[in-house]
Specification:
The protein is of the alpha+beta class. The protein has three domains: 4-78, DnaJ domain (Helix Hairpins); 107-135 and 215-256; 139-204. It is 48% helix and 14% strand. Residues 92-98 have low confidence and may be disordered.
C-alpha cells in the first residue's frame, strides 16, 4: 500500500493547508514542463494520486483507516454499539477504537510549515533596503558644527552634539587643530554620511554607521533576500537564507535607529 503522506512529504497529522502547500511546491519542482528528468512524469502522477486522496476528507478517512488496519473493511457509517451493562458498572471501562499513528515531523516538514512565515522577512528586508537607497540618494543635509577632541583608552574621538565618533589615527591628525567641521547627513534618517573640514581638504567616512563602516550589512540583506524570493526549489537552502536575512536585517535596523 502506497504511503501518500511520504509521497507528499507531510506528516500524518498535517492539516489540509499544509497538504496543499506541499503539493504546490512538489508540482513546481517535478512537473514535466520544468523538470527534464524522464522519471518526473511518473513521480508527478504519484503526487497527483496522493493529493487526490489526501485532499478529500472522505477518501482521507478511508485511507487512514486502511493504512493502520490493512486487513479490515472500512465502513463510512459505523453502526451504533449496543449499550453494555459493563460500561455502566465499570468506571474504568474505555472504548477501544482507532488511534492515528503519530509521527514526529521531519526537518523538511518544519521547513514547509514555517517557510511562508520566514519568507516575509525577505520581503521586509527588500523594503528596508529600498528605504535606505532612497534616503542615501536624496540631497544630503550640510551643516557646520563645533567639535572637541576626547581621548579614551588610546582611541581618539570627535565629540559634538552629545555624540562620540571614533576616528582612526591617520584621519585624526587632520582634525587635531580643527574646532568646526561640515557635517553631511542623510535627509530622511539623519544618519552621518561624511565629516569634512570646512576647506574640504579632509574627510572622514570610516565610522560605525549604516552608511559608513557597516554599509555591507544592508547589501547582504538585499542579496540574500533577492535570492530567496527568486529561487523556485531547494526549500531548505532558501529557508537558511531567510534566517541569515533576518539576522542581517535586525543588525541593519539597530544601525538605523
Amino acid at each position: 500500500m502506497k504511503d501518500y503522506y511520504a509521497i507528499l512529504r507531510v506528516s500524518r497529522s498535517a492539516d489540509i493547508q499544509t497538504i496543499k502547500r506541499s503539493y504546490r511546491l512538489l508540482v513546481q519542482r517535478y512537473h514535466p514542463d520544468v523538470n527534464p528528468d524522464p522519471q518526473a512524469a511518473e513521480l508527478i502522477r504519484e503526487i497527483n494520486e496522493a493529493y487526490d486522496v489526501l485532499s478529500d476528507s472522505v477518501k482521507k478517512s478511508e485511507y487512514d483507516y486502511r493504512l493502520v488496519n490493512p486487513y479490515q473493511t472500512y465502513t463510512q457509517q459505523q453502526q451504533p454499539e449496543e449499550p453494555s451493562p459493563l460500561r455502566n458498572r465499570d468506571p474504568y471501562f474505555k472504548r477501544r477504537g482507532f488511534r492515528p499513528v503519530f509521527r514526529r515531523p521531519t526537518q523538511y516538514d518544519l521547513v514547509l510549515r514555517y517557510f511562508h512565515y520566514v519568507k516575509k522577512v525577505c520581503v521586509s528586508g527588500l523594503v528596508v533596503c529600498l528605504i535606505l537607497l532612497i534616503d542615501y540618494n536624496l540631497p544630503h543635509i550640510h551643516r557646520t558644527v563645533s567639535i572637541t577632541i576626547d581621548y579614551r583608552a588610546g582611541t581618539d574621538y570627535l565629540f559634538f552634539e552629545g555624540r562620540y565618533i571614533p576616528v582612526l589615527q591617520e584621519e585624526f591628525r587632520s582634525f587635531e587643530d580643527v574646532t568646526q567641521v561640515e557635517l553631511v547627513e542623510s535627509r530622511l534618517l539623519r544618519k552621518i554620511i561624511e565629516i569634512r573640514t570646512l576647506d574640504g581638504a579632509n574627510a572622514i567616512t570610516t565610522f560605525g554607521s549604516v552608511y559608513g563602516t557597516f554599509k555591507f550589512v544592508p547589501i547582504i540583506v538585499f542579496i540574500t533576500a533577492l535570492i530567496c524570493l527568486l529561487m523556485r526549489d531547494n526549500e531548505e537552502f532558501r529557508f537558511g537564507l531567510c534566517v541569515l536575512t533576518g539576522f542581517a536585517l535586525f543588525f541593519t535596523l539597530v544601525l538605523m535607529f
